[in-house]
Design brief:
The structure is a single chain. The protein has one domain. A hairpin with a 6-residue loop joins strand 4 and strand 5 (147-154). Helix 1 packs across helix 4 and helix 4 (179-190) packs antiparallel against helix 6. The protein has 6 helices and 8 strands. The radius of gyration is 20 Å and the shape is globular. The protein has helices at residues 54-67, 87-92, 116-124, 179-190, 217-222, 238-247, and strands spanning 9-19, 107-109, 113-114, 133-140, 147-154, 160-169, 205-216, 227-228. By secondary structure, it is of the alpha+beta class. Strands 1, 2, 3, 6, 7 and 8 form a 6-stranded antiparallel beta sheet that branches. It has a two-stranded antiparallel ribbon with strand order 4-5. It binds zinc ion. Zinc ion binds next to helix 2. Residues 79, 81, 83, 86, 88-89 line the site of zinc ion.
Length: 250
Amino acid sequence: MVDNIAFQKNILIMGTIVCDTGMHIGGVKESMEIGGTDNPVILDPRSNLPIIPGSSIKGKMRSLIELQGEYLLDDGKPHSCDKPNCNLCIVFGRGATEDVKSGPTRLIVRDAHPTEGTCDWWGRNEDLVHGTEIKGENWINRITSAADPRFIERVPAGSEFEFEMIYSVYQTNDFPERLKLVFEGMHLLEDNYLGASGSRGYGKMRFKDIELKQKTKEYYMNGNDWAAVSDTGELKTTQAILKWLNNNAG
Ligand SMILES: [Zn+2]
């Protein structure tokens, strides 16, 4: 059976990212900045507050799925292939050069912005500058044994960000089958880290209060708003949703 490509619906995956430890997602160092740190975090130019770029979330999810083995390439380079039925490439995207008829990349991950409560907390805390604390880290030069102190900006533990992903359903395999890959990636990420220095304990995070909503093709034509995906109201964690996708959905 040919699985035709035709837009059926968008699924909105939204909720909160909680930083259980300090997190550093690198930005660009302003070379002339006086008193600046060696390693600034990425800031939203409008609010001048930290964000978690959608590309960081998506890229990390993808790389962790690849490390599971099924999609790992011999040379260790990021996976990209020309197989029209490759779930990883269909969900997360593939290089633009390959002419493969598998439709648009299914997953879009938006930049995650700090919640209102987190912005208030950052604003009240005098130890924080634009939502970040400065952490000194010592590197020992392996040859001279000289200490090499660096100053790293990081978002403090306990900070929360609103995340949002759009997953588009074009083929019958997209739901629930391929959507599992998204939640598998989110689940893997929760036991890994986001940003830099994960081996030093940075970037431990989890998703909470997840909601699944949808707009079908008809919703778009009629101008209807997002509606909850039925039977998912009580499912708030990646694990609960993965179990639902494996057992009940579709
Ligand atoms: Zn592929």
